[in-house]
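Internal ticket #5521
Category: modeling
Description: The requester needs a full-assembly model to guide mutagenesis choices. All entity lines are attached below as received. Residue total reported by intake: 657.
Assigned to: D.W.
Attached entities:
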Amino acid sequence: MDYRRYSRLTIAFHIWGVLKFFFFAFLYLFIFNREADWIGYGRIIAAILLILSIIFVIFKWLTTTYKIDEVAFYLSEGFFTKHKRTIPFSKIQNVSRHTTFLHKLIGKTSLKFETGMSGDGGTIKFEVVSKEEADHLEDWVEKSSRKVNVSAHEEEKVEEYIEDRKLHFAASKKDILKASMTSLSFLLLIPALVSLFFMINDFINVEKEAEGAIHFILSAWWLTTLVVIFLIVASTIFGMIKTYIKYGNYRIYSDDDRIYISRGVLDEVRFSISKEKVQAVEITQTLMKRILRIAEVKLTSAGQTGGGDSSMETSSLFPFLPQKDAFRLISEILPDYEVAEEMHKLPKNALFARLLKPSWIWIIATALLYYFQPNVFNLHIPWWLLSLILLILIVLLRVLDYYNSRYVLNGRFIQLKTGSLATALFLTRRDKVIEIEMNRGPLEKILGIAKITTINRAQPVRHTHMYGVPESFRLAFYQWYKKRGSEIELKQ
Amino acid sequence: MDIDLPIPKQRLSKSSIKAMLMSELIGNAIWLPILAILFYVDARFDWWDWVGWVLWVVLGLTILSMIYALTIQPYLLYKNFRYEVDEEFLQIKQGVFIEKYELVPMTKIQSVATNQGPIQRRYGLYGLSVETMSSTHTIPMLSKEIAMQLRNTIAYYAKIKEVDE
């Protein structure tokens, strides 16, 4: 196969992006401010920039090409300096699809293959492809990369491989409703209204009229109540719609090798990762979610799941799972992961150590409070009281952290739970831990405790700490990691 | 006690104590004149009061750290630094007050290099730096023979990679 260009529609998408970028500038230059003197120059400059951007987009499309064979992607780009890259399929960590509303209108989608390398060079992105082509590409990469790894004996099995996806979770209306409550998304209406107000105010002076309206509303109590009720209802509905658009159609599938997560109503996002490439699993709960017994399960991947857009959250299994379903879902989706429900508490000494450790935040804050003696909200609170309040808060958080902390070694797995208000339970397999570290200072030595750290592949590399485990566990942790050698698969 | 971690066997080169002393001497020989100049400039140009206080505190700390650094610190650093390399792992234990024990699988090592600064050269020592996906681990002062041998050993073991990379 020869090098070929991306779909012609890519140009249209890029031009659309450029137009969006210039939209407000043009609104400002051509619709409002018609009288200003400098407007002529401004218009000319804006027009030149626009034309240059469009030319750039076209040239970029003309000079960017790709090639695919059985083992790798080959990318070539650049007009003056040619830049070629080879990305073998075996390096690909996860695949994501983002179907925006625009994509939907023309029945296409965008496809992204992410590797563990950081920076732009790490991803291969097809901005506009048809659904069939995307399926084909994904299948091609999946099958080819498996052929490289499996022995000839298993190859037949690959051929027989039938698409057999099992649905593990589909968000119900109740889940979405709960999600919109927990995420407090109904509060989003207020900032949205405020920013809308200021944006309009920039062009037309609404402030004066608004003032009159507010006076009118406040003049009768029944009118005030009505408006308040209306605002509450409107913001709740707004929050629900927003949550529905983002998390509606949330589905988690898996087959023998891969996990698929898709979500979204207008913008559809689909994420898939090979089970072997899951580096760790994490269950996180914010304070609100803990109260409502909801949890979020995240899959840690070495690929870049960030990248500025909303895809960050795609590696998360549904963020609003009922707590009891979280464990079930993990063991269903990743059958070789074992979740231990029973975990050890930290020894009492770990609490002492947490309380005895100096808090730099408190020391610095106290020094600053003493020096500036600020008058907070005009309440005349003395500086030492503020410092005391801060100290109590810090102690409280540390005590909570002590009570929430749990740890356990369970066969090949390690489970660490930490956090004071929001908690996170981290679960990973021995062969996915790329390094470990154990620390202790004089205080910890006296108290017979230590800090242990696991380091995992992620973007960026992830360090997970557990402070205050007993020394006997430190040794167990060391011996546990030493047995790693028997489990890893080595390259020839 | 049986709940303590096993201590890695290898140590730094004995002459690392002398090298560390020398580097501390040089460091202080550069820093003290700078401090003296600051004192002079402070008096000459009548800077704010607090600058004087800060300078005195810095001087106090410098003297304290100098006493420590030029007497027992090099010995303690030497005594507490241990490493061990085998087929599967690189182990490093270090730290005088805060003890740090690292365990790095050979398969996860991406590169290994020896390096030598001017002071190390004076004593015929080499530093070894081992890079992994998450950080760089250094074994600072080894004799030439051991450093080269260790570099080759690590490079040999680290050639083997795991499937998922």
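Resolution: model delivered.
Comment from assignee: The longest strand of chain A covers residues 462-470.
Ticket closed.
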